[in-house]
Design brief:
heterodimer; A: alpha/beta; Rossmann fold; B: alpha/beta; 2 domains; six-stranded mixed sheet; 10 strands; about 40% helix; about 25% strand; binds adenosine-5'-triphosphate; binds magnesium ion
């Protein structure tokens, strides 16, 4: 398609092996500036020349003070924010795509097939039950109803969400309960890329431990994980490396 | 991977009303299973665009190509009135904001659904009625209400009936103009949930006009923002809403959050 950096030479087994050794994510000189037209055209520089890569099976933590652009970086990786310049190469399945210039359709496809994202807060959908919400990404990716529901139940059980809540819409759940629904939704598909924005922020110690285990399992099956972790213990327990971020203009 | 082709393509659509521009130079492509939301304030040209896309309003310039079930490209504005009507009753659907515009208020709910089936070639009365019942169930209308006329339905039920009437023939592309417009919030939530499921299960392509950004976010994959007859911004729905670039989109988004 139009914006895919081409990677379509027919793959002999050697080339495939070489391809697998390339990072799954490669961020290069990424910049993001917001222009607030409602506020006199104020410019906010959120990211300046951020570069890093993530290999398969690796968990990389974005680390830095509040406002240093960690969530902005994660949202750019998901195609939720549009970078001002730079590139985000994502290598998944049959090709290589630059998320920074990909068409909406390409981004949709990558999300469906390759990228899972656990946002900081659950976005509740009116009238949709917890179980349906968790299974939805699996259904959208073409998994059968039974398999999707089975996987959703397994995860909710592991995250200790009481079974009596499964058929309810999570609108009335506590912060920690909502976050566990969000985590289950994010982890239910075994995608090659997983993005986590403070997944353990409102969890108790027992459930934090479950999330740490889930991240370990994801890495073991070769997933490339990028995460923001608010507590140092969790970060040390899961991250192979950290990318240190600072506010543009300030030094880390 | 099965690479599909767009089911709808619009090329440089422009519509003038005398001196005034209703809509200027809009091009788009829509793929099977994709919901395209068109947002913007009233008078921004959303309905003008929708009416051109669905073949109901002739463009001053540009054309609309629909790829039919057999893979043939059909210029919607080059069809005879009869052919266009036939298409609108079978492969295409149009859900009006006001159910009165999309239903026959004086005939029964069952007949409202059956009528479209007959236009698509259905003849057997027993089968027509069975399918109508099946669809009433899908849109959560109790079976005994099948012989009632829609005039005796609530607004939410009328809208669900209009949706059943449109979807019963298994259309490939449906146009919706503010489908949740006049409904109160709880009724809206139910309708949205229903639409979300039907769109997914039937792999429908939808062009959805709405001024409600929450509805747009919930139902659309992609968004186009219209302002003074032009598309000022477009992209993935959550990207446009969370990282709006154009001043008008920023105004729209910020007004909602404060509302
Ligand atoms: N949608 C947006 N529109 C305008 N500015 C934004 C937007 N999102 C983020 N910003 C700005 O970008 C900068 C970086 O914010 P970001 O949320 O990425 O920081 P963070 O490192 O995740 O901080 P925290 O640790 O507090 O979550 C901030 O100045 C923020 O105000
Ligand atoms: Mg953050």
């Amino acid at each position: 398609m139009m914006n895919t950096t081409s990677n379509t030479f027919s793959a002999s087994s050697r080339e495939t092996a070489a391809n697998e050794a390339l990072p799954v994510i490669e961020v290069c000189n990424l910049c993001k500036e917001f222009i607030l037209h409602q506020q006199g055209g104020t410019h906010i520089e959120a990211l300046r020349n951020v570069s890093f890569h993530v290999n398969a099976g690796e968990c990389v933590a974005l680390y830095g003070p509040s406002g240093s652009g960690k969530s902005t970086m994660l949202k750019a990786l998901y195609g939720n924010y549009l970078p001002s310049s730079g590139s985000i190469l994502v290598r998944c399945r049959d090709g290589e795509t630059d998320m920074a210039s990909a068409s909406p359709r390409q981004v949709s496809r990558l999300r469906r097939e390759c990228i899972s994202y656990v946002s900081q807060f659950l976005r509740v959908i009116p009238r949709v039950s917890t179980l349906d919400l968790v299974a939805e990404p699996l259904l959208a990716a073409g998994f059968g109803e039974e398999k999707a529901m089975g996987r959703a139940r397994d995860l909710l059980r592991r995250l200790n969400l009481p079974e009596r809540l499964w058929d309810l819409a999570p609108a009335t759940f506590s912060g920690g309960e909502q976050q566990r629904v969000n985590i289950a939704r994010g982890f239910c598909r075994p995608t090659p890329i997983l993005l986590l924005d403070e997944p353990t922020a409102s969890l108790d110690a027992m459930n934090r431990k479950v999330v740490v285990e889930l991240i370990h399992e994801a890495c073991e099956r070769g997933c490339a994980v990028v995460g923001i972790f608010h507590d140092d213990d969790t970060r040390r327990a899961v991250a192979h490396r950290s990318v240190v971020m600072s506010r543009p203009g300030e030094h880390a | 991977m099965t690479e599909q082709l767009p089911v709808l393509r619009a090329e440089s659509l422009t519509r003038r009303y005398g001196e005034r521009l209703g809509c200027r130079n809009v091009s788009l492509e829509l793929w099977p299973g994709e919901v395209l939301g068109i947002v913007g304030e009233s008078g921004s040209g959303k309905s003008t665009l929708l009416n051109m896309l669905s073949g109901r309003l002739t463009p001053s310039e540009g054309r609309v190509l629909y790829r039919d079930a057999h893979g043939a490209d059909i210029d919607l504005h080059a069809l005879s009135e009869g052919e266009r009507r036939r298409l609108l009753r079978t492969e295409l659907g149009y859900v009006h904001q006001n159910p009165r515009d999309g239903l026959r208020m004086q005939v029964s709910a069952g007949a409202n659904i059956g009528e479209r089936l007959m236009a698509a070639g259905g003849r057997n009365y027993g089968k027509l009625r069975a399918t109508a019942l099946e669809w009433l169930d899908k849109v959560e209308i109790a079976a005994p209400r099948i012989d009632d006329v829609p005039a005796r339905y609530s607004g939410g039920m009328q809208q669900r009936l209009q949706i059943a009437r449109n979807l019963v023939t298994g259309p490939r592309l449906v146009f919706m103009d503010e489908p949740t417009g006049g409904l109160d919030v709880s009724v809206q939530a139910r309708l949205l949930d229903l639409l979300r499921r039907l769109v997914r299960d039937m792999d429908l392509a939808v062009v959805l006009v709405t001024h409600d950004l929450a509805v747009a976010r919930l139902l659309s994959h992609r968004l186009m923002v219209m302002y003074h007859g032009e598309v000022v911004e477009q992209g993935l729905a959550d990207q446009v809403l969370d990282d709006p670039h154009h001043p008008y989109t920023q105004l729209l988004v910020s007004s909602i959050l404060q509302g």
